[in-house]
Amino acid sequence: MERNQYENLPQEIKKIVDSWDDSGDLYKECARIKKELEAKNYTCDYGLDGSIYDLRTKKAPKHEDLRVRSVRYFKTRRGTGYECTTNKLNVVVWNDGQGGGTYIANYYPYTKDYSDIMENEQYLESLIDDFENIVEDVEKIPFNV
To answer: How far apart are CA 1 and CA 6, in angstroms?
Structure first.
């Protein structure tokens, strides 16, 4: 967890995070921390290595804050494909340019919370459209050199 993320947490959540005890089974400790966080309407994910990551509130699905950050277009024999990076680690939107749909490539555990939209082409295309409109608006701003 980054320092600024920790500093912005409510005091009661900081208290739970600070109660971490690394003297025993780290996996069980992660489960305990998650259970305490969920009682306060927060949650987190944790790995088999006994490390907690992605501390967040439980209010909204994770994909609601998914945003495209860049698009790389490439030519194929049958058309144009693209790779879109997002604001989420290892969550990448693809279209292979071979006539198939737009999808999020499965890269567990990073994409597990996006399973409901992994092949929702309309939603994924709307994320790309939102990004491209932002880029187009920025390009229209005159610069005084």
So the answer is: 7
